[in-house]
């Protein structure tokens, strides 16, 4: 049995640098334009999240918030194109996030939350082929 020497391991490591250069991640990150990274706040029938929640809730009481992706038609869940995650925020604070698997997960999630003050519920969803999309809904909290 041949045990590789330190010189063999070093040569192999240097050789792999040819196939996997250290700057590959940087080069890949530069491929994405600012438009691809920027959060979409406009409307798109297939990508804009739809938030279903009451307009008003009682302080501290649990209630459901359902977020489905595709305000007009459900976003696909295919191996090559799917929604990576759906996140729910209250104003700028993230309340919850769910990661979805292609094919096995529909892009619809129901969160059960409680709030102590009103504000904006914000849903953010990131599909595989574009930047994340956002929708918001005002919610009032009563004593």
Structural summary, described in words:
With 143 residues, the protein is an alpha+beta fold. It has a single domain (39-142), classed as Immunoglobulin-like (Sandwich), CATH 2.60.40. Helix content is 17%, strand content 38%. It has three helices and eight strands, in the order αααββββββββ. It has a five-stranded mixed beta sheet, with no helix packed on it. Strands 1-3-6 form a three-stranded antiparallel beta sheet, with no helix packed on it. The longest helix has 14 residues, at 6-19. The protein is globular. The termini are far apart. 20% of the residues are buried. The model is unreliable at 16-20 and 28-35 (pLDDT under 50).
Keyword list:
143 residues; alpha+beta; Immunoglobulin-like; 5-stranded mixed β-sheet; 3-stranded antiparallel β-sheet; 3 helices; globular
CATH superfamily: SOR catalytic domain
Query: What is the number of helical segments per DSSP (H or I, 4+ residues)?
Result: 3
**What structural class results from the helix and strand content?**
alpha+beta
Strand order of the largest sheet: 2-8-7-4-5
End-to-end Cα distance: 76 Å
Give the CATH level 1 class: Mainly Beta
**Percentage of residues in strands:** 35-45%
Q: Which stretches are poorly predicted, pLDDT < 50 over at least 5 residues? A: 16-20, 28-35
Order of helices and strands: HHHEEEEEEEE
How helical, in percent, are the residues?
10-25%
The CATH topology corresponds to Immunoglobulin-like
| Average pLDDT, all residues | 80
